[in-house]
Design goal:
Layout (H helix, E strand, L loop, with lengths): L1 H41 L5 H24 L15 H36 L16
Helix pairs in contact: 1-2
């Protein structure tokens, strides 16, 4: 059991490290949004690159902070069923939800998403907009 707790502590330290680094992305995201809104509103200059950068930063923030939020119970949760459960029963319900809903979803996402990702990288897929961010070119 101590081995599992040590793995848990290491994984939590990793997710906390990612969350601490990604906090700085919030400042970058705020500057990008303020720049985009200011340029569009007062100078009538729209930028597809800024808008795409906003989406990329939102995605990075979500993915980098999700594990940390889950370990701190800071994620969005609708406790429709578990609010009247004991702590032990609520934990069992949480584990069952992860096993029967979260893990199969992640597995399907990885299995079926790999083909789309490899196709996109192979053909250097990019945005349809002429002024969008260039492809990553991995």
């Amino acid at each position: 059991m101590d081995f599992l707790f040590s793995i848990s502590r290491k994984l939590e330290a990793i997710s906390t490290g990612f969350a601490r680094v990604s906090v700085w992305l919030i400042l970058v995201l705020m500057l990008v949004i303020i720049s985009d809104v200011t340029l569009r509103r007062w100078f009538v200059i729209g930028s597809t690159k800024l808008q795409e950068l906003e989406w990329h930063l939102h995605g990075a923030l979500f993915l980098l902070c999700l594990g940390w939020a889950y370990t701190k119970n800071a994620h969005v949760r609708i406790e429709l069923f578990t609010e009247k459960f004991s702590k032990k029963r609520a934990a069992a319900f949480e584990i069952a939800g992860c096993l029967f809903f979260l893990l199969p979803y992640v597995a399907a996402l990885l299995i079926f998403g790999y083909d789309y990702m490899s196709f996109s990288l192979e053909y250097n897929e990019a945005s349809a907009s002429a002024t969008a961010c260039p492809p990553a070119g991995l």
